[in-house]
Design a protein that fits this description.
- This protein is an alpha+beta fold.
- The chain is built from 22 helices and eight strands.
- It has three domains: about 210 residues, no CATH class; about 200 residues, no CATH class; about 80 residues, Glucose permease domain IIB (Gyrase A, domain 2), CATH 3.30.1360.
- The strands form three sheets. Strands 5-6-8-7 form a four-stranded antiparallel sheet. The protein has a two-stranded antiparallel ribbon with strand order 1-2. A two-stranded antiparallel sheet has the order 3-4.
- It is globular and about 80 Å long.
- The two termini are about 35 Å apart.
Length: about 525
């Protein structure tokens, strides 16, 4: 049983890798957009204020943000395509169709029950438990909706895509039958989500009063929940009531009542007679860890990466660190370890909550909006007495070190599969030679050699790849000829039960494509 569960988790982890592979590239692109459009950077480099440069920077930034804001859609497409044992492109398309059906089901049930929330001018649907996804207002399951549905679609697709009918029903064979089954499963999923998820949301919302009345410990819980609930999308229900309602405090300015941590901060920042920001500022401190902590997290991943993956990990993590610190966008890095090493994410949430509480303990009333450069400039401009910003920097440096030391220790001690350490066991047969060039799949000698060395087409269950490794699941691993594999000049070979991973480096996508094409030709020949 334990082996079966472990096997399922490994399959899930592999499926998650596919859509996540693009996030590191997206983070690299976003860095440019963030640097060009940030006001603090533009003040230092005035030529960046030129209209065409700002337009290009904004297009880059918004182009990546649309991906970040639609991770649920990406997972709904990517996971089925990764899980499918055949017709992967059809599985991905059906995943997208299923996601649309699920969203529409949720929307129509909200309309029918009269529960469709009204958007406010300032917050939109934030805090209502609903969201507008692909133009469809529905119950907000966050990224979780896409992940759960993606796994469901992948499982059902593998059960049904080989089904064949005869006669007039032949048109409903194969992936068409899969679509029919998944269509109705998506409706059921949408209905269940509308019943179950609001209950979960209500439970989260009920914690707000507890947090408000629990002092410093409440701030710890506040920061902890804001991070730990990232994959569910429920973190919005934690910070929104405090930042934009009276739960975050009230401020009387003449005849005007200002409510919520963010409006209070904006008001006090413009009041010269206010010598120190009020305690409402602590509910704006969810950006503290974005400004500092992700530096330590990224550094720990680089430090603990396997030697052969070190440079790749540096190239991946540095842009994501910059994206987190300057753009406040942490999802690309979060989803690189949240499922691969959930224990780390738990400690991550604990540390995030701890440092919000420490800001209260050390009377740090600095504004932490998630942008390190802008945060430093704005807090210095407000003055030490009003913000105590030097202590903010001290706490920030301590947090970076804490993340680095703790994460590095746990990663090595528990052999966690963080970026750069994705596969079990050391790579074998290290060879300095680069991966061979692969052709267009027309009688490709490297691909044919790999297939033969793995026991032939009949012995190969699935072929996948991550950033550097060809991942193959076999029916009988005893048929593997490692010496023949080594003639293709891999950088290493990793074997575990029925799984074989062949390290080809960054050229692995070309190798995978060639192998897929040769396997397809072998299938059509039979």
């Amino acid at each position: 049983m334990k082996k079966k569960v472990k096997g399922l988790l490994e399959i899930f982890a592999k499926a998650m890798v596919q859509p996540l592979m693009f996030l590191s590239c997206a983070g690299m692109i976003m860095v440019l957009g963030v640097l060009v459009t940030q006001s603090s950077v533009r003040n230092l480099l005035p030529f960046l204020n030129w209209g065409p440069i700002q337009l290009i920077g904004n297009l880059i930034y918004q182009g990546v943000m649309i991906l970040i804001n639609n991770l649920g859609v990406i997972f709904a497409i990517g996971i089925p395509a990764a899980l499918a044992k055949g017709d992967k492109h059809r599985a991905g398309l059906i995943g997208f169709l299923a996601y649309l059906v699920y969203l529409t089901t949720s929307n129509q049930l909200l309309v029918a029950s009269g529960k469709l929330a009204d958007a406010s001018g300032m917050l939109g649907l934030i805090g209502t438990g609903q969201a507008n996804i692909l133009g469809i207002q529905c119950v907000d399951m966050g990224v979780f909706g896409g992940i759960i549905l993606g796994c469901l679609v992948g499982w059902l697709f593998n059960l049904t895509y080989k089904k064949r009918f005869k006669g007039a029903l032949q048109i409903y064979s194969g992936s068409n039958f899969s679509f029919l089954v998944i269509f109705f499963a998506s409706i059921l999923f949408g209905a269940v989500s509308n019943l179950v998820w609001p209950v979960v949301q209500a439970g989260i919302g009920s914690l707000a009063s507890f947090i408000k009345n629990s002092g410093t410990f409440g701030l710890f819980i506040y920061g902890f929940l804001e991070r730990i609930l990232i994959p569910t999308g429920l973190h919005h229900l934690v910070y929104t009531p405090f930042q934009f309602s009276s739960l975050g405090g009230v401020l009387q300015v003449g005849e005007t009542m200002v409510a919520g941590a963010y409006p209070i901060y904006a008001t006090e920042a413009m009041m010269p007679n206010v010598t120190k920001f009020s305690d409402s500022i602590y509910f704006m401190a969810t950006g503290f860890t974005k400004m500092f902590g992700y530096i330590g997290i990224g550094a720990s991943f680089i430090y603990t990466a396997k030697p052969e993956n070190k440079q790749k990990t540096i190239a991946t993590m540095v842009p994501l660190i910059i994206t987190a610190c300057l753009g406040g966008i942490t999802e690309p890095m979060d989803f690189m370890f949240i499922f691969a090493a959930p224990l780390l994410f738990f400690f991550h949430a604990c540390i995030a909550g701890l440092f919000i509480a420490l800001m209260k303990v050390f009377s740090v009333t600095s504004f932490c909006g998630g942008n390190l450069l802008a945060g430093l400039i704005s807090n210095i401009a407000q003055g030490v007495e009003k913000t105590n910003w030097p202590m903010m920097i001290v706490l920030g440096l301590i947090q970076i070190v804490l993340y680095f030391v703790l994460f590095s220790f746990l990663i090595k001690k528990l052999d966690l599969k963080t970026p750069g350490r994705e596969d079990d066991g050391p790579a074998e047969a290290e060879a300095p030679a680069a991966a061979p060039a692969v052709g267009n799949g027309s009688g490709d000698p490297v691909a044919l050699t790999i297939i033969k060395a793995l026991g032939g087409k009949a012995n190969i269950n699935t072929v996948e790849n991550c950033i550097t490794r060809l991942r193959v699941n076999l029916a009988d691993p005893s048929l593997v000829d490692e010496e023949l594999i080594k003639t293709t000049k891999p950088k290493g070979i990793v074997r575990k039960d029925n799984d074989v991973q062949i390290v080809y480096g960054l050229e692995v996508a070309d190798v995978r494509r060639a192998v897929d094409e040769e396997l397809e030709k072998m299938g059509s020949a039979t």
